[in-house]
Amino acid sequence: MILVNGVVCKDAKLVKADDFLFRGLHVMGNTSNDVGSNVTAVTVAEGINPPHTHPRATEVLTVIEGSLLVGFVTSNPDNRLFTKMLEKGDVFVFPQGLIHFQKNLGYGHALAIAGLSNQNPGVITIANVVFGSNPDIAEDILAKAFQIDINVVRQIQSKF
User: Is 49 marked as binding a ligand?
Assistant: First the structure.
């Protein structure tokens, strides 16, 4: 038995064309959530795309409809922000492991397709990880790291 990311691979003799098909990208996802976005993963496992990183993959984003502000930040010590306004047909690359984001700045819906260079890219959403860890990261550590009051840390943690 061969596993890919913990999922049993189908015997090559039993593979059909439907095994390579995903239908549904024409259906708009639910964007009435706290960040106003929806990501439809098309993998074997099935507003704003907030700052996140893929520790094991480079991402290539292609805008199909609408316009998106995209950006990424280089690592320490520079922490340089690169941003670009993308329109229909534009392609942007987010280097592996760097924190990046997308925001719909258009007047209508935006649709983009992302491809990742690894079948198991991982995703770390920064705010969720930092303020929603289980158990919580100590409030004093976060207050010092973000240079904010402990009460602000408590308020943010309560949302996660």
Answer: yes
Structure-block tokens of residue 81: 């922000």
The DSSP output letter for 56 is: T
SS3 126: helix
- What is the CATH superfamily name and number for domain 47-122? Jelly Rolls (2.60.120.10)
Contact between residue 59 and residue 94 where contact means Cβ atoms under 8 Å apart: yes
Domain boundary assignment for the chain: 47-122
To the question of whether residue 65 is assigned a binding role by annotation, the answer is no
pLDDT at 92 over 70: yes
Amino acid (1-letter code) at residue 132: G
Alpha-carbon distance of 132 to 52, in angstroms, equals: 14
pLDDT digits (tens, 9 = 90+) for 102-157: 998 877 888 899 999 998 899 999 999 999 999 999 999 999 999 999 999 999 99
Tokens of 151: 């009460």
Q: Are 111 and 65 in contact (CB under 8 A)?
A: yes
Q: Is 52 labelled a binding residue?
A: yes
CA distance 19 to 146: 46
Q: Give the 3-state secondary structure of residue 43.
A: coil
Query: Taking the C-alpha atoms of 83, 107, 64 and 114 in order, what is their torsion angle to the nearest 10 degrees?
Result: 50
